[in-house]
Please model this.
Amino acid sequence: MPVRREIPYKQGIYFISFTCYRWFPLIESLNGYDLVYKWFDYLKRKNHFVPGFVIMPNHLHVLISFDKTEKSINKIIGDGKRFIAYELINRLKQKGNFELIKTLQTAVENKDSKRGKKHEVWEDSFDWKFCETEKFINQKLSYMHNNPCAGKWKLASDPIHYPHSSAKFYISGKHAAYEVKNVEDLFKEDLNHNAESTAHTQSHE
Model:
């Protein structure tokens, strides 16, 4: 698993996963789905796009198409995790769940505490895979979309009925809780961009 490994590229489509600390269902219990969508909105403002995702009670899988970025992709993901974590802790405080807050506080390692970290909301780092082909992306979309219906979860009888994923869009053409960008459009844009770059280079030879 490529957890902890630095992403060496500045653009491209990536399959990203991260998980709540000890698999606690923090997203579901604190209704934190909107926080993930706010992060997606931030990514869009930076010209990065989300072609697919699923938000589970205690973890997240997402495809992100990164435009060429000065900031490292690891830093972008880390900042997103921190934003969501901060807001989840605020909701825990509002609910008065100080016992769980204490658990998340004591879980922070000394090295992280020294750099200002106060709560261990997520498992360390995140998992990522670079998506080079449309076939691989479609495999990941299928995996994500079936996640709520599989195994122990049984959150929906059919992927199209789970609101916090992109399944409905790819099955029916209609968006569910969040509007995604069709992965086929992203590939077409890349092909057009590559064709234009090639034509530009040839015209100057």
Remarks:
- The first helix runs from residue 26 to 29.
